[in-house]
Amino acid sequence: MALTARAIYLLILSGCIAASQRNDNVYVSGISNACGDVAELLRASSGVITSPGWPFQYPARLNCSWNIRARPGDTVTISFQDFDLQGSHRCSSDWMSISSYRSLDGLRVCGSALPPPYISSQDHVWIHFHSDDSLTGKGFRLSYITGKAEASSCDVDQFHCSNGKCIPDWWRCNSMDECGDSSDEELCVDSPFSFQPCSLNQFPCLSRYTRIYTCLPHSLRCDGSIDCQDLGDEIDCDVPTCGEWLRNFYGSFSSPNYPDFYPPGSNCTWLIDTGDHRKVILRFTDFKLDGTGYGDYVKVYDGLEENPRRLLRVLTAFDSRAPVAVVSSSGQLRVHFYADKINAARGFNVTYQV
C-alpha cells in the first residue's frame, strides 16, 4: 500500500501490557503479568494498558491489577480510548476500578460507555480488572501519563494546559477533559478523535502522518512500516534478523528502515572483518535512538566476539547530538544494535574504513 494510502488510516496498539523491568519513559508491551497474585508495578512516566486479548474478547474469570507509581509529588492522569465490559447492576459482574488506594474504593465502571478521565490526587494509582464466569466483552484500552500538577514547560509532543499540567498532544480535542480545566478542549474545530468502534478486521489509532484517529486494516500491522503515532502497529511484532558480515576495507551500513523509524524490537549485529591488521575507523554520521536513553543502544566491540572486556563504546539516546567515531586496535569490529519494544527513532548511519 502506498504511503499516501497509509496516511488516511489509523492504527491501534494491540495486545495486553506486560511487565517492564526498567524505569523507561514509556510502558507498553504485549503479554500481561498483571493477572496473577501480584499487581503489575509500572514506574514508566507514560504508557498504555489493555485488557488481556484486546481488541478481542477478554477471558472469563480474570483478576488483574496494575499499580502505577509516579515520582514523589507528581500526579497520574488516565484517559480511555476503548471500553467494553459486560454491564450489570452496580457493576457486580465484570468491572474495573481505579483508586489511589489498594482497596477497591474509588471509580468503578462497567458497560460500554467510555469512562471519564481519571486524575489522581496522589503519586500512585491502583487499577483492578475483574471478569466473572459468564459473558465477556471486548475489554479496554487506556493510556496514562505522570507528571507535575504545575510545570513551567512541557515536552514538544505535549500540550501545556492552562493550569500548568502537561498531557500528550494527541489527547487534545478528544472531547475528554484530561487537563482538569477543559483547556485541552478549547479552540477545537474538528475533533481529531472519534470513539466510533472499528470493525473486527481493523485497528483504531492516531495516524503518524495526519494526526487524526481512524481505522487501519490488520494487514498494515507488523509490516515493518510505522504508521501510528504511538508505534502501536509495530509493537510486539516478530522483527526479521538484521546485520551482515562486512569484509571490505571500507563501507557503510544503517539501522533498519533508516532514515525512517527502526522497528521496535530490532536486534542487529554487523561484523567488520577487513582481513587487514590496520585499525578500523567507525563513524556514526547520523545517530538518533529513542528518548528513553536506556532501552535502545549500540555496542561496539574491538574484535568479532561479544567480549565485555573488549567493549569500546556503548551509545544511547544521550549520544545523539554529535557525530561519534570509534577506532579499533586491529581490522575487526563487532557492532550490536538493540531496540526494546517500547519506542523507536530515526536510527543511525555508519561508515567505516581502515
UniProtKB/TrEMBL annotation:
Pfam families from the UniProt entry: CUB, Ldl_recept_a
Subcellular location(s) of the protein: Membrane, Coated pit; Membrane
UniProt organism field: Larimichthys crocea
Keyword Hydrolase assigned: no
Listed name of the protein: Low-density lipoprotein receptor-related protein 12
Transmembrane regions listed in the UniProt entry: none
Cysteines paired by S-S bonds: C154-C166, C161-C179, C173-C188, C222-C237
Residue stretches making up the CUB domain: 35-147, 242-354
SMART domains listed in its UniProt record: CUB (SM00042), LDLa (SM00192)
Keywords for this protein: Coated pit, Disulfide bond, Endocytosis, Glycoprotein, Lipoprotein, Membrane, Receptor, Repeat, Signal, Transmembrane, Transmembrane helix
Membrane topology classification: Single-pass type I membrane protein
Gene3D superfamilies the record matches: Low-density Lipoprotein Receptor, Spermadhesin, CUB domain
CDD domains (UniProt xref): CUB, LDLa
A cellular component annotation (GO) from this entry: clathrin-coated pit
Signal peptide range in chain numbering: 1-18
InterPro entries: CUB_dom, LDL_receptor-like_sf, LDLR_class-A_CS, LDrepeatLR_classA_rpt, Sperma_CUB_dom_sf
